[in-house]
Amino acid sequence: MLFLADHEQQLIAAAGFQEEDEDEDEDDEEEDKEPLTPGQIKMKAAYQMLLGTALVAFVADPMVCVLTMGSVAKATSAVPSGI
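RE: above sequence
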């Protein structure tokens, strides 16, 4: 309750509302994890790069087809583009 005035904090306390500290829970979770070894870091990096490459390849090929079809349609259009 950093930005509340004293009387506002008193009203909230009287109403029975309490602010939950989520930051403390997150800190506890981070401390429980063991640090990654260099081999684990390399495997995680390779996995993420492979996943990113697959995602780009999956999206890029259909996008190229859409853009190509659009440019072909404009080039072969019977409607003059200068009108």
